[in-house]
Amino acid sequence: MLSRWRQVKEGGGQVALISGEPGIGKSRLVLALRERIQGESKALLSYACSPHHANSALFPFVTQLERAAGFAPDDAPEARLDKLESLFQEPAACPDNAVALFADLLGIHIGSRHALAAMSPLQKKGLLFSAFLAQLEGLAVRGPVLVVLEDEPAGARAGPVSGRAGDR
């Protein structure tokens, strides 16, 4: 994994899949990598799937967005929207409808002033995946990015986000 990380730092995109039976030390390997590269400049995105949210493929992305935005449990919707907007202040990391898409995903009411109101769920889903990838690409332009997706269900590896990110 360290050799892959060196390639990432040199500008070569890499994907490493660690899979196996529960309890063999996959999480420990990832923790060891994190410890080894702790002092290095990088962006870290950590997504944790949960069997309790098996029917919500975007659960890990929702929780990562909430952590990145710094949401507090008692934040008012306006405060959450402000925090979300501040997360996407750089235009390169934020497609036109990204804040509105992410607000919609997070259940933050933004009103009908956005074009999202007229979109079908399938259109929103496609734009949402594109926005997640644009966010990742925006981080990658600035430097190395370590993305950890833990406990991804076996059938999800070819999913729209993890599959498309690996293709890039």
In short:
The protein has helices at residues 2-9, 26-36, 59-69, 77-87, 98-105, 121-142, 160-167; strands spanning 43-48, 145-150. It is mainly alpha-helical. The protein has one domain (2-167).
Question: What attributes does this structure have?
Answer:
two-stranded parallel ribbon, mainly alpha, 47% helix, 168 residues, 7 helices
Summarize the structure in words.
With 168 residues, the protein is mainly α. The protein has one domain. The protein is 47% helix and 7% strand. The chain has 7 helices and 2 strands. A two-stranded parallel sheet has the order 1-2. Helix 3 packs across helix 4 and helix 6 runs parallel beside helix 7. The longest helix has 22 residues. The chain starts with a helix and ends with a helix.
* Largest sheet, strands/sense/barrel: 2 strands, parallel
Separation, N- and C-terminal Cα atoms: 19 Å
- Structural class of the helices, strands and pairings? mainly alpha
Order of helices and strands: HHEHHHHEH
Q: How many beta-strand elements?
A: 2
Strand order of the largest sheet: 1-2
Stretches where pLDDT is under 50 for at least 5 consecutive residues are 157-161
Radius of gyration computed on alpha carbons: 17 Å
**Structural domains: how many:** 1
Helix content percent band: 40-55%
Total helix count?
7
The coarse overall form would be: globular
How much of the polypeptide forms β-strand, as a percent range?
5-15%
Mean pLDDT over the residues: 81
